[in-house]
Structure formats: C-alpha cells, structure tokens
Amino acid sequence: MIKFTLQVRVKQSEGALVRILGVTRRRRFDLLHLTADTTEDGHFLDIQMTVQADRAENTLVRQIEKLEDVSQVDVVDPDEICGERRAARSSAR
Amino acid sequence: MKGAEFLVKALEHEGVELIFGYPGGAIMPVYDALLDSKIRHILVRHEQAAALAADGYARATGKVGVCMATSGPGATNLVTGIANAYMDSVPMVAITGQVATSLMGTDAFQEVDIFGITMPVVKHSFLAKTAAELPRIVHEAFRIARSGRPGPVLIDLPKDIANTVAEYGFHEDATSEEIAEASKESITRAIALMRESRNPVVYAGGGVGMANALDQFRAFIDTTRIPVVATLKGLGALPTTHELALGMMGMHGTKTANHAVQTCDLLICVGARFDDRATGRLNAFAPNAKVIHLDVDRAEVSKLRRADVPVIGNLRHALKALTCKLADIEQWRRECSNSKETHAWDYDAPGTEVYAPGFLKELSDRAGDDSIVACDVGQHQMWVAQHFHFNRPSQHLSSGGLGTMGYGLPAAIGAQLAFPNACVINVSGDGSIMMNLQELATLRRYDLPVKIVLFDNRALGMVRQWQELFHDKRYSEVDLSDNPDFCRVAESMGIPAFRVDDRADVSGAIDRLLAEPGPVLAHVLIHQEANVWPIVGPGRSNSEMLHQHEVAREVAR
Predict the structure, then answer these.
(1) Which residues from A are below 8 Å from B129, CB to CB?
(2) B179: Cβ–Cβ under 8 A, 6 or more apart, which residues?
(3) What's the confidence (pLDDT) of residue B491?
(4) Taking the model in full, what pTM does it have?
(5) Spatial CB neighbours of B536, under 8 Å, sequence gap ≥ 6
(6) A25 close to B (CB below 8 A)
(7) What is the dihedral angle through the alpha carbons of B85, B91, B95, B96, rounded to the nearest 10 degrees?
(8) Which CATH architecture group holds B184-342?
C-alpha cells in the first residue's frame, strides 16, 4: 500500500471536482484527505488530495493529467504544502 | 435565432452529415431546428441503436459520429453506446435534451443526471448554460472527440437554453490538433533495442488505424520485416493475408501469434493497451520480452506492463522514424512462417451441418476487399476475427472493449449510410440479434442493403462454451431453444429472409446474399455444441492454449 499527496489545478467547470474524484475511485485509489479552494481569479480550483492504493502513483497521475480541464498535476510532500499555507497565511496577516 | 438553431448551425459548421437519434420532450426544439437543416437525421427505433450506429459510422469513416436523444430514458438508453465508444476510443458526440434549467435538480418529469451518469464513460462532457456558448461548446466537443486518443463527448442541453433567443456569434479557436512527436531520445533507444533483438514481434492494436497510420505502419513492417500479431481492433493494420501477419493474439488468437509473443525477445506494441483478452495471465505474458510501447495516450504506457522504452506521441512520425533495415532475424521469421503453415486453419470439419468458420471463410473470399463486416458479440464475433480477411481495420466493426451484444446491426446501419454502395455484412448470433432486433425496421425504412448472417445454435454460445469447458457442463440460463422464427420476424419487417441448414447449401446461400439488391437475412443453423477454438482458459497464460483435439482426448480418458 502506498500513500501520496497530489496537487491538482483544474479549470472551474461543470463537475470538475467530481470528475477528478470519480477517476480516483474508479482507478482504485482510496481518498484519505481532500481540500479544494477556488483560485483568486475564480477561474481554477486548486485541489490537494492524499490517497492510498496498491497501484503506482503514476497510474493515477496520468489518468488525471489527461482530463480535459486539468492544467497541472504534481505529486507533492504534504508537509511542504502545509508549510507553504502557514507561510501564506502569516504573510497575509 | 434560438439556442437549438445555434446547435444545428454549429453541427453544420463541423461538417456533420448524419445524426442518429430519437425525439422526445426536452429535445424537441432541436428537432424543430433540424427541419430547416441540410443535416440528415436517421430515426432509429431505440436510442441505444442511435449511439451504436453513430459508433459504426465513425469507425467506418474515421469521422465523428453524432447521436441524439431526449432527456431521461432517452439519455440513459444512449449510455451503453457511449460506453462502447469510450472503451474502443471511437470519436463521438452525443447530444441529450435536458429538462429546463429551473427544473433541474427537482426530480422533474424525464429528468436524469446524464452528465453525472456518463462521467466515467466520456472523454469530456458539457452542460450548456447559455445559448450564446453553444457554438463554442459544439466546436470544443468535436475537437476533443477526435483529437489525440479519440473518444465520446456529451453535450447536455436544457430545453430553456435550446429555446433562448440570442445573437449567433462564432469564434473558432486557433487550437492545434497536431499531436506532438515522440522524443528523439525514445526513438534512438527503441532502434537500439530493435537492432539487438533476434526475435522481435510487433503487437498492433486499434491505434494504428485510428492514427491514420496504415501507410507508415506497412512501410515500417515491409522494411524491418518483423512478424506482426494483432489485437481484435488491430486486424487489418497489415492485410491479414500478408506473409508477416501471424493473426490475432490472445484468448481466441492463433497458435502462431501467441507462440511468437510468448517466445519473442522484443515486443513492439503499437497503439494497443495490453487488454486482458489479448494478454491472458499478465505476469506470464511475453515473459522474455523487452517492451517498446508506442502510444498517443501516456496513461496506457506502463499501466499494465512496464515499457522499457515508451515512445509517446504522433504514431505516423514515430513509425517513420523507427523504419530501418534489421539484420539477423531471418531465422526467426522462418520459424514464424513455418508455424503459420503448420497451424493453418482446417475447414474440413466432420458432419453435414453448416460449419460457421467455413461459411465465413467463403463469404470473405467472395464479398471482396471493399466489404465491411459489423459483428455482434460472442462466438460468431471470434469466428469473424479468425476467418475473415481484412485489408484495413475500418473494414471490421467489432465491439472489443465493452463487448456489447446488439452492436452489429446498428453499426452496420451506420456503415451502410456512410458507404451506400459498399457490401455491408452484419454477422450476428441468435443471442445478440435479439438485443437490437427492432433495427430491422430501420433497415427497411431507409432501404439499406445490409446482408445479415445470423448464426443460430439455439443457445448463448460463448457462455455455453465456458460452462462446458470451465464449469463442469453445468449449463445455466443459456438455452434459447424457444427462439422465434427469425425468417418470419424479418419478413414481417419487410426484410426477405431464408434458412440454411445444410453445408451443401452454403455456396448457394452466399450467392443469394450477395445478389440481393436490398437488405436480406440468412438464418444459418449451426451445431449447438460448436465451440470457438483454440481458447486460452480464464486465468491461464497464452502459452496454455486449449485445442479441440486436446480437449477431445482429455474427455476420452
């Protein structure tokens, strides 16, 4: 069982989040954690999701990558994201 | 102009000639707009057939097939056809009516979330929210359906949007549909593996035809002289009579094709996806081979079998770049061709009943290279794949990935409308034909000269065969001895029909089929226990093919 975190940017469009979650389930990856925020300009949705599966992470990355409205997919270190967010929040203050 | 007129105008702009569909409440504005359009609408008798006919049209022509239905049950009836196109990467645009925007989400009459229902089986989908965006949506839908790895796209159109009056404005994006070329590095590495190999095999899939790469593929084979095995959808990438064509691989493949793959040291997969029906037990598949995988969809590469060299991108370019002379594979080529001779099909079966493989061989010889065969699913589908000769993949319309019984007749309708003068043959079985039998009425309505060969073994033959071989002959729900009189059914729908039950009558029956100017049905009775041979059992490796004589010996012991 491997566990990893993906950062996905998808165009705000009908069913965008459901489409990504659907691919994740269909390809047999279990969702452990999910956050999603609209970007400031309102055009995109930024999704962070942690999943686990018996399959290689590339299996999911490549399936999500080829969805029409997805503009970026990265495997990331979850601690880094949390760090960045904390930094972003504190700089906003 | 109304939204519905925008839609129709945009379809005309995309060059749509035919739409397969069925009207109903929510889609009525579009049907109204169609009255003033030059697009021809083909009224089927069940929406599933609309989607499958659009699929057949698309496979035969390479163009995007278009189907249309109303909301609710009309839309859900399309789903099997959409899924069929998705599994076999067929370019399709499906348009569904939807209840008015204000009623969506209220469980209104004939409301169904077709956008949600089809999500797993479309390449992309759109819900129209304004009339003004419809031309852009249609343009995008066609671009997505045919670009890269093709597939179906859904457009869900609420009735109020279809009725909204707005200004038509169309802005065509300058987006390029050119597929990027594979990297130079991948080509260099692939050529190095090809030069090292002593026993290479090319494993050709449906991608060859869909990438419009037949010329490049054939030049690649004629220069490298590597033996070729094909998937169901890859048949015809190389003419099946070509000296280097070893036949279909997999569960019902030829002994020669499976043996070549199992013993090769290099497998060059061209536009295929290591489907389980092709590979048998995956961890025993091509055990000694390094793999070069050419595909447009990088998600397919290393999905099931690790590729030593992925070659991702434009197939025409990649094949051209890989075309080179190879030394030292003469011995291997001879081995393959000797095996092909040793294991050639034997049409000399005992008995006087019609032998389906022999019937199909003769039909293929006489129907000629321009014929198109649309199959249903089951034993007859495998016999067609084994015994019909194909010169190009678009000649063979077969539901590979989804395995949709009922595909053949609608697909034949789609192909015949695309090529009115071609000899289009639907080979079906007594199980499959009943899944879309109502389309005989469509054949009659449009007077389409489709030749139907209906093999009847009074059983669900493929399931019966599995129960015989792998379930200790415990036959469960496979008996169809109460079939209707198929000749009378056809005749009642205005289709001439005749019965063939003796092998001596086969040549005469084929004469009659091919001579008939309009649609015709040949009801061909075959032995109930006729099986498809050879077969790789479930969970078995392709090295463990079962042959008829071996099974007979096993039973005798």
Answers:
(1) 14
(2) B147, B148, B296, B313, B314
(3) 98
(4) 0.95
(5) B250, B251, B252, B253, B258, B280, B542, B544, B545, B546
(6) no
(7) 20
(8) 3-Layer(aba) Sandwich (3.40)
CB contact under 8 A, A62 and B298: yes
Q: Is A41 on the interface with B (CB under 8 A)?
A: no
Please check the confidence at residue A92 and state whether its pLDDT lies above 50: no
| Burial class, B57, CB count within 10 angstroms (exposed 0-12 / middle 13-18 / buried 19+) | buried
Is the distance from CB of B293 to CB of B309 less than 8 angstroms? yes
The domain that holds A31 is classified in CATH as 3.30.70.260
B37 Cβ neighbours under 8 A, 6+ residues apart: B8, B9, B11, B12
Cβ pair B28, B2 in contact under 8 A = no
Note the CATH number of domain B356-526.
3.40.50.970
Q: Report chain A's terminal Cα–Cα distance, integer Å.
A: 40
Task: Enumerate residue ranges in chain B where pLDDT < 70.
Answer: 171-176, 552-557
**Is any Cβ of chain B less than 8 angstroms from the Cβ of A28?**
no
A31 near A51, Cβ under 8 Å? yes
Q: Which of B462, B465, B467, B493 is catalytic?
A: B462
pLDDT above 90 (res A84): no
What fold does the segment set B3-163 form as a domain?
Rossmann fold (3.40.50)
The number of domains in chain A is 1
Neighbours of B205 (CB within 10 A): 27
Q: What is the distance in angstroms between the Cα of A53 and the nearest Cα belonging to chain B?
A: 14
pLDDT over 90 for what percent of chain A?
81
Query: Which chain A residues touch B126 with a CB distance below 8 Å?
Result: 14
For B457, residues 6+ apart whose C-beta sits below 8 A from its C-beta are: B379, B429, B430, B464, B525, B526, B527, B528, B529, B530
Task: Phi first, then psi: give them for residue B545, nearest 5 degrees.
Answer: -75, 140
Domains B3-163 and B356-526 share a fold: yes
**B130 HSE (CA, 13 A, CB side):** 7
Element containing residue B19 per DSSP (H, E): strand B18-21
Residue A71 near chain B (CB below 8 Å): no
- Residue corresponding to tokens 């504005």: B29
A24-41 confidence digits (pLDDT tens): 999 999 999 999 999 999
Give the integer Cα–Cα distance in Å for B549 and B526.
20
Residues 6+ apart with CB under 8 A from B145: B64, B91, B92, B93, B123, B151, B152, B153
d(CA B207, CA B465): 31
User: Looking at the partner chain, which of B115, B299, B302 has a beta carbon nearest the beta carbon of A66?
Assistant: B299
Q: Do B303 and A59 touch (CB under 8 A)?
A: yes
Structural domain boundaries of chain B?
3-163, 184-342, 356-526
Interface A-B: count of C-beta contacts within 8 A: 33
Question: Considering only CA atoms, which of B547, B536, B534, B434 is closest in space to residue B489?
Answer: B434
Q: Does A15 touch chain B (CB under 8 A)?
A: yes
The token pair at B361 is: 């061989």
The residue range of the domain holding A86 is: 2-92
Q: ipTM of the predicted structure?
A: 0.91
- Tell if the CB–CB gap between B119 and A22 is shorter than 8 Å: yes
